[in-house]
Amino acid sequence: MGDVVQYKLERMVDELEDLEKKGLFTRQEIRHIVRKRRDFEYRLKRPSPLKQDFIAYINYETQLDSLRKLRKKAIIRASKGTEKKWKKSVSDTASVIKILEIYKRAVTRFKGDIGLWFRYLEFCKERRHGRMKRALAEALRFHPNVPGLWIYAASWEFDHNLNVPAARALMQSGLRACPQSEDLWVEYLRMELTYLNKLKARKIALVKDQGVIGKVGGDDQKTWKDENEDLFVPLNDEKLAPANIDGKELNSDNELHVLQTHGSELFRAIYNEAIEATVSSMSLHKRFLEILDAADLLLHDEIKKEIMGKMHERFSREENYWDWLARMMVSKDGKMDNSGNAFLSQLKKAEEVYEEALSVVPSAKMFSLYARFWSNIIAPEEEESENLYFNGIPFDVMEFVPNLLRVYERACSSDCITEDLAKHYVSLHLKVGRLEEGRKLISKLCRAVPNSTCLSILRFTIEIKYAMSSSASISKDELQSMYDLLCGILTEGTISEAESLWLMGFKYLSIEKSYFDKLVQTFLAQLAAGGSVDSTGVISSTILDSVLQTSGTHHFRETYKRILALPHPSLATYKQCIEIESNFAYVGDAEALANVRNLFESALGFYGENIELWRNYYSFELKIGTSSEASAIFWRARKILKNEAELLVTCRT
User: Fold this and answer.
1) How much of the chain, in percent, has pLDDT values that exceed 90?
2) What is the DSSP code (8-state) at residue 642?
3) What pLDDT does residue 371 have?
4) Which terminus of the chain, N or C, has fewer Cβ atoms within 10 Å?
5) Eight-class DSSP state of 237
């Protein structure tokens, strides 16, 4: 290994001597460079070098080359006005060659790392090095099934190398290797249309300036060509030249028409091949439509009609297709007059599409998409407002509320109502001020969608609002009704599923102690019947806080003892009880002192590995107990915690 590293360092001698000779680096800096390179080379010669070793070496050499360039510019600026000129030497290219060599070693070691290959290719493209073609060929040889590589290679040939036949050949090879790739088909079409547009633009420019070029001299003609360089794409393949498209001899009268016709035929051919070769998806058709709308093709309308027909044939049983089709009717691509009549006409067309969709796919998802469409019209979200336009319409969008209500009603009558639809249906009534109707509706929907915690919470909230709106104070009959409703809902599911409803019930019924106590008894009974105490720490905390504030210390202790007597009580409940009892103990309550110790011992029985619990117990004994009791706690903790017991040492000191 040492001989190989030494050999590589000796090959750098010419470069390092040149750097010192030109004054770019001092001898001491060169020693440091050699030392760093030796370290990196030894790391790369290990039996299993890491990818990060190669990346670190590349980053170091890149930064070193950047520093060399900065110092070179400074020396050139300082030597202005003198006869001394900077001559290109070995140090000007050695850094790039060195980095390319490291990249080559890296991708040889990590052939499967596609990200590393792309970094290698980007460096070659950035430095405009001749190794780009070879690097692309190697990358495609190891990763022929990566569509992004084929697209990258074709893009480089088309945009940077200006070699259209080579770009086309790469795209076609990629499509043979990855026929299922939607990105490849789309980018192939985009490339062909871009090339066709360049041919058309060049012809137009040549026709317009034909007389001008004939009159001006050689220098002016060269200037004109330089200004329009992007139009002069090399036509290396005679079949692709404007004068030979489709085997037709073109002249100035018909060649633009032929180019436009050729573009339409090209689009149709690639589209048909793509949908046959791929597992056709809506996204592929939509991307082809986007390209079609952006292109200037002679048969634009005819091709669009064909695509829409095939989409209808393939996706007419999918809800998302109908939703997309309806939203197309009110997209920003259309035009609108000041009266808003065009917008109303487009809404009518969208509504007809949704109605047809419901006759074909009468599903809950279709109703949900239909309702969401009207909701976006009435109260647009930011994301939706980018695709639909209705700002500045000279009428109130609330006029469309009946349309949305009809959708919800039809969903209910068709047995396609879901929890989400039901929630938005009731929320719409509340937004428009129909509290009484919303109250009746939520009762009906809770029966239609049973075991829905979300709807149960909404129902209880509406009942509270209704009771508060009817009178300033709530009567006992109303409280009893609310309690019966709440208990009926809570007993249907588990405590953890309805946690927010339990919290809401305790908060609401805290105004009447008797009902609050009944709800506590219900909660404890449900826990005893098999509820998980560990997942109800928030509810237990709410109960204990309320009991302590309203019923005093004695009732508080009775309540937490009942909760902690259940199987596996939560750590949060223990901590809350310990904190409250500790506060009483600090002011001299002897019963509280005994309770704190009992709580700690009980908690450690379940959570003996919890370091914080041991630390708090030890700190409590230090503050209020004796030194012997504190020491006993400390050594018990060390025995149980073992390696983690060091955390207690700082507390003891």
Assistant:
1) 32
2) G
3) 93
4) C
5) S
pLDDT band at 338 (very low <50, low <70, confident <90, very high): very low
User: Could you tell me the domains of the chain?
Assistant: 1-80+88-143 (no CATH), 160-315 (no CATH), 570-653 (1.25.40)
| Dihedral class, residue 306 (left if φ above 0, else alpha if ψ from -120 to 50, else beta) | alpha
Three-state secondary-structure class, residue 55: helix
DSSP designation for 84: -
- Helix H or strand E segment including 388: none
Cβ neighbour number for residue 644 with a 10 Å cutoff:
13
pLDDT at site 643: 60
CA angle (157, 160, 164) in 5-degree steps: 40
Checking if the pLDDT of 241 tops 50, the result is no
How far apart are alpha carbons 140 and 188 in whole angstroms?
A: 17
Half-sphere exposure in the Cβ direction for 84 (13 Å, CA): 8
Q: Are 176 and 203 in contact (CB under 8 A)?
A: no
| 118-150 residues labelled b (16+ CB within 10 A) or e (exposed) | ebbbebbbebebebbeebbebbbeebeebbbbb
Task: Give the separation between CA 408 and CA 414, rounded to whole angstroms.
Answer: 10
Q: Which amino acid is at 594?
A: A
CB atoms within 10 A of CB 417: 22
